[in-house]
């Protein structure tokens, strides 16, 4: 930038505001202008991962452990029944297809969130936040649906995982009763068992965050792995030839396969809570990311249990494969106890989804006594599942 020097030798008006570079040629003073720091900051792309703050961030291994626990739930025990509805050959193909669909949906959710982080200058978003922000930053016709879409996602997630927790309590009680009934010689009232489980469940939901819940999930994974290992031993012992089973089942039962498999594999409700608590959230997606690692292993286990379970028991397969095991065998009893403990460990992760939704909706009203209010909410939600469990029974 240049300006003409005052003929009287004094500073010009520009001299007062702009720094000179001490050069003057033919009565013309040259000025050096530098770009301000605020302009540089404005041109720098917002990095949501560097700005994210977590009191208890989880590692990639912690997140993978949670993801495996969320996906390797009780649904895996019903995979032999799913293969019965699809057939051995079609069951393998369809399990891979369902897994790809579920993984792709989770992948779209997380990658969309990462892009919206940058556009909205946010470091975290829930599932509902992503849906709302996508509408707000989408075409004009979609912006008016932002609020309703957010509420729809929240209600859907809450109902799904709240009912799942209620079902989990029933499954835990039934697995314990499987062993108890054999030794006491009569059928134990399952409602009594559920009531006895209430205190351990409340203690579990008091775990403050996912960081401290990771060891519980890891132990639950070990129990589930041992239980499935013993079950697999029974499944591969004295198996009949493949020719005795349907490779492709009747098309009328095919929807049953999808309903069981989707229930078993999908865990999209825990995807954003897991991603939000990661120390390196960019590692959640990608070819060798946490999501692909977890879902690849889950898919393989589901196919193996489903294939050999149906191959071993055929049309006699039960809704839960553990019910086909000999009740008098110690190994079968150990399986049911381990599965019950594994599902108990999973309960906390499923409950966390409900808690996050409910707490986000009311926490602004309890800023002064937030800790007391949060744990009161945890207790009420845990206790309120008992009436629902009675209805389910």
From TrEMBL:
InterPro entries: AA_transpt_TM
GO molecular function: L-amino acid transmembrane transporter activity
Pfam families in UniProt: Aa_trans
TM stretches of this protein: 81-110, 152-171, 183-205, 212-234, 254-272, 284-310, 330-355
Alphabetically ordered keywords of this record: Membrane, Transmembrane, Transmembrane helix
Keyword Membrane: yes
Feature: compositional bias, Polar residues: 1-10
All copies of domain Amino acid transporter transmembrane, residue ranges: 57-375
GO cellular component, one term: vacuolar membrane
Membrane topology term: Multi-pass membrane protein
Primary site of residence: membrane
Subcellular location: Membrane
Region (Disordered): 1-26
Name of this protein: Amino acid transporter transmembrane domain-containing protein
Organism: Acanthoscelides obtectus
């Amino acid at each position: 930038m240049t300006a003409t020097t005052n003929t009287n030798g004094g500073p010009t008006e520009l001299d007062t505001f702009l720094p000179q570079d001490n050069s003057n040629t033919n009565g013309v003073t040259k000025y050096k202008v530098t770009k301000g720091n605020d302009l540089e900051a404005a041109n720098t792309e917002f990095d949501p991962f560097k700005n994210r703050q977590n009191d208890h961030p989880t590692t990639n291994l912690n997140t993978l452990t949670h993801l495996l626990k969320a996906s390797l739930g009780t649904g895996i025990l019903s995979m032999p029944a799913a293969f019965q509805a699809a057939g051995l050959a079609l069951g393998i193909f369809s399990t891979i297809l369902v897994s790809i669909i579920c993984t792709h949906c989770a992948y779209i959710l997380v990658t969309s969130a990462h892009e919206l982080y940058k556009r909205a200058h946010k470091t975290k978003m829930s599932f509902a936040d992503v849906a709302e922000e996508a509408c707000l930053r989408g075409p004009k016709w979609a912006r008016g649906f932002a609020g309703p879409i957010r509420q729809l996602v929240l209600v859907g997630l809450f109902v799904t995982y709240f009912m799942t927790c209620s079902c989990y309590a029933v499954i835990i009680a039934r697995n314990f009763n499987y062993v108890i009934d054999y030794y006491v010689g009569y059928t134990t009232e399952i409602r009594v068992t559920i009531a006895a489980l209430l205190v351990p469940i409340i203690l579990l939901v008091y775990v403050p965050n996912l960081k401290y819940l990771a060891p519980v999930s890891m132990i639950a994974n070990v129990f589930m792995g041992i239980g499935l290992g013993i079950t697999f031993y029974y499944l591969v012992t004295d198996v009949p030839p493949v020719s005795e089973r349907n490779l492709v089942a009747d098309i009328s039962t095919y929807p049953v396969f999808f309903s069981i498999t989707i229930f078993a594999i999908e865990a999209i409700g825990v995807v954003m809570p897991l991603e939000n608590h990661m120390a390196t959230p960019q590692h959640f997606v990608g070819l060798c990311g946490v999501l692909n690692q977890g879902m690849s292993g889950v898919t393989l286990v589901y196919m193996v249990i489903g294939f050999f379970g149906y191959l071993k028991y055929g049309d006699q397969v039960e809704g839960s494969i553990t019910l086909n095991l000999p009740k008098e065998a110690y190994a079968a009893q150990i399986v049911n106890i381990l599965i019950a403990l594994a599902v108990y460990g999973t309960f906390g992760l499923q409950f966390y989804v409900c808690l996050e939704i409910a707490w986000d909706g009311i926490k602004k009203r309890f800023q002064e006594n937030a800790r007391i209010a949060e744990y009161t909410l945890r207790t009420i939600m845990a206790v309120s599942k008992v009436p629902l469990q009675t209805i389910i029974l």
